[in-house]
Specification:
The protein is of the alpha+beta class and 155 residues long. 30% of the residues lie in helices and 22% in strands. The protein has a 4-stranded mixed β-sheet, with helices on both faces. It is globular and about 40 Å long.
Amino acid sequence: MSSQRRRGPISSGPDATLTTNALGACVSLYVDTFSAPPWNESWSAVDAAQRLGDILAIPRAHGVCLWDPAGELLGFALGHLERSAGDDHFLLKEMCVRAGVQRCGHGTRLLQALADQLGDVRHWYLLTARDGDASAFYERNGFRPAARMGVFVRP
């Protein structure tokens, strides 16, 4: 079995937890997804493997994968818990769904699988491009632009 394929159902059960065993398939999907429109970023497999591996290595990281019955990775979501005051907050660092199966409910299923993993964690946050398909997707799934927080960048 190659790193691109895995046997298993499309599910959010225990088989869907993102582990280092699934990293090769996640890297390939990540490069394919974020190298294409609307992102048009230039990711190498080496850089994507470093990024996703680093996120997965963060203490209290959580991730889920969605596989089709033939073992092809359809999507994944990955982030980690952070403590703030007396509550855990979940930072969703990366999420992508294979281009040919977007707008079929898979992204929503990934978010639900993460919610099932995280239990009582009520505070989630993420960064994404404003006013695009991704931001509209997150808003449809209960996210909203932060009222008090902003993103600042430095060259």
